[in-house]
Amino acid sequence: MSIDPTLQQQQLKQKEFMSLLPLIAEIAGLPKAELGKHFNPEQMEVRAITLRNAYKVARQLVLEISSK
Fold it and tell me: What are the extents of the domains in the chain?
């Protein structure tokens, strides 16, 4: 049984993101929520944008390191 190439590509991207997640979190520098307090939807959206930007930086860093 063959996997759809598009699905396979999505899975590779997800795997890449998960493997970079510790580096992404460090680059993003987001604080954790205080115990018993939760982020509102706007705060979550800002955090998601920050993580997306940190992912781009982390991915570029890994590409630069691997090309040397």
Answer: 20-67
pLDDT at residue 9 tops 70: yes
Rounded Cα–Cα distance for residues 7 and 11 (Å)? 6
Transcribe the chain into DSSP letters: -PPPHHHHHHHHHHHHHHHHHHHHHHHHTPPPPPTT----HHHHHHHHHHHHHHHHHHHHHHHHHHH-
Per-residue pLDDT band for 63 (boundaries 50, 70, 90) equals very high
Q: 10-28 burial, b if ≥16 CB within 10 A, otherwise e?
A: eeeeeeeeeebeebbeebb
- Contact between 14 and 21 (Cβ < 8 Å): no
